[in-house]
Structures are given as C-alpha cells and as structure tokens.
Design goal:
two-stranded antiparallel ribbon, globular
Length: 215
C-alpha cells in the first residue's frame, strides 16, 4: 500500500464480509510457486483456493473456518462467517452428483456464484477482465485521474444496476462500501492501484500478515 492508504484498526472487522463477496486467497498452498495448479485456474478460482488447505478442489466448512482464523478472526466470529460464506456459496457450486459434505464449496464451479449489478471485472467464467476494471476509473473518476471518491463509486453502482437484481445490488454496495472504507486514501479517494490489490490478492496478503503479527 502507498503512504496515503491506511490499514484498518482491526483486519478481522472487514476481512470477513470482503471474503464473502470477493472470495479471496492467502492461507492455502493450492497455488504453487512454480505455477502448478494456477496454470489452469481462473482468477476467481485462485481466490477461492485460499481456503483449500488440502488442495482437493473442495472447501469444507472447517477449511473456511480455519482460513478465517489464519487472517486473524477469533474463533466465534470465524465460525459465524464460515457459516455465512459456505451457506451462501455452496448451493450455487455443488454438483448434482457430489459425494462430499453438503456444506462444501466446489472450486471448479465458483463462477456460478458471481452476482450481477457489478463492474464486470470478473467474466462469467471467473476470469479477471482488466478492461472492465479500468472502466471503473475512466468512466467514473471525474475529480482525480485513476481514482474515485465515494460519490463516484455510488454513480458507478447506479450505472451497473440490473432490473430486479436486488441481491446483486446489495452485494455490490456492500463490497464496494467495505473496500472504500478499507483502502481509501487520506483525501477520501479510492486509488486504482489500491482497488486492484483486491483482485491480485496483495491487500489480503497484507491483512493476513498483519493478523499473524498480532498473534
């Protein structure tokens, strides 16, 4: 993060909701340094691999809970957040012929959990779309180049709203409000580079490391 961006006083306070909405990585060893599994995984699948501690392509409730603990959440809060995350995502990703627990997330189908009324920075297959991400700032960043303020974020969300998509609208508002609160600079702008860290994992790496250093 640049000097103008601030870390939250409590990483656990914001990490849980953002994990639900962005589905982000750090703790798992699923994405190996030599490219291994990551060679065939989409950006969104790599994010979910954060939780897949045994690298079997399936994220159990226990793995979600332990992943949340790894970034600094307390035991009780991690249990609540894991229940919410798996409870929302599992029905959308579980294959009909699945044999594992009915509370396990299947990474291969995580793209089915993408909500509407958002920026389109992930496509329907879960791949990161740089052009769509860049449009957030080229179309809506009027005051400062490569940055958006709170009003401009609201304008972006309004422009992306889909008719009848109440869930998508709520999810979009929640994730961008949380990201803005987490990564805005001292002048109230969400810089493009700061927002990009949500999609390339580095923001959550910092949160996880910060949580580890507190233990």
């Amino acid at each position: 993060m640049s000097a103008g961006q601030r870390m939250p006083s409590s990483p656990a306070a914001v990490a849980g909701p953002l994990l639900l909405l962005f589905v982000v990585p750090f703790w798992s060893h699923a994405v190996s340094a030599d490219g291994g599994a990551s060679a065939w995984m989409t950006a969104l699948q790599k994010h979910v691999a954060f939780f897949d501690a045994d690298n079997d392509g399936i994220v159990s409730f226990f793995e979600t809970e332990q992943g949340l603990r790894a970034i600094g959440l307390g035991a009780a809060e991690a249990t609540v957040k894991a229940t919410l995350i798996n409870g929302v995502i599992v029905p959308k990703t579980r294959p009909e012929n699945a044999t594992m627990s009915k509370f396990s997330i299947y990474i291969e189908n995580i793209h089915k959990g993408i909500h509407g009324s958002d920026s389109g920075s992930y496509d329907a297959q879960g791949r990161f779309v740089p052009a769509k991400f860049n449009e957030i700032f080229t179309k809506h960043g009027k005051v400062e180049p490569n940055a958006v303020n709170e009003r401009e974020l609201e304008a972006m969300r309004t422009a992306n709203r889909m008719d009848g998509d109440d869930i998508g609208r709520a999810a979009s508002k929640a994730e961008w409000d949380l990201l803005y609160s987490l990564a805005k600079d001292k002048d109230g702008f969400l810089q493009k580079d700061a927002a990009r860290t949500v999609f390339d994992d580095s923001l959550f790496v910092l949160l996880a490391k910060d949580g580890s250093s507190r233990n």
